Structure formats: C-alpha cells, structure tokens
C-alpha cells in the first residue's frame, strides 16, 4: 500500500479519535484527561526510546519532520485512555479485563494490519512483549488516575 494512502488512513484514525472525545462528556474529560495526557506522554517517550534500540520502527509518517507515533499519541491513545477510564475506572477487575482485551487487539490484529499496510513493524520486540508493555502502561495509568488524577479533579473541579 502506498505511503500516501497510509497517511490518509492515519489522519482519518486521528480525526475519528478526536470526534469520539467530544462524546465522552465535559466531566469525563476534566476527570480523566490528566491521566490520559500522562499516558500519551509516556507512549511518546517510549517510542523515542524504542526506535533508538530498534524495538520497532514507524515507516509511515503523517508529517515528515514529526515523530511517526504522534498521530497515534494525540489520537487513539489519548481518546482510548479517556474512554477506558470513563467506563471502567471504579472497577479494577473490569479495567484490567478491558485493558487486556484492548492491548491484545492492538498487539495482534491491529499490528498485523498496520504491518501489512507498511505503517510500522516490530524489529526486536515480539507481539506478546508489546502486549505486556501495553498492559504495564495501563497499570501506570490507573495508578496515576488514582493517586494524582483524582486529587487534581477534586481540587480544581469539585
């Protein structure tokens, strides 16, 4: 598949993610956006490290001089984090279950599709390791929300 088509798909994926954020509701955004932004920053930082040590490479970039992970960070990861927290935050077992499902989906079918399209590919990391990495980050996001996000929300919005 051409890089031009990949850019279009990535751009559409980013826009759709932003549109879904509007449906999350103002209160949910206030409450869960700090943890979601933390997660996005973590994913961005992880990508810089991962590309240096050749865990993976992103071959299709939306903008030539912008890190290839950026559309995913400010799109799918940010929006997905808000939605997962919105529906599962108060129930740790549901949160863990949903994250295992989402991480597995991202690490297997979603990865396979994007690899086939030539968007990105794993180099020194296996798919199960990628899934585990995502799961660990989900635990960090939950901890951030519990110990920092809730305090920010109650201090500034309640």
Automatic annotation (TrEMBL):
TM segment ranges: 6-25, 69-85, 92-110, 130-148
Keywords in alphabetical order: Membrane, Transmembrane, Transmembrane helix
Domain of life: Bacteria
Protein name: Uncharacterized protein
Gene source species: Rossellomorea aquimaris
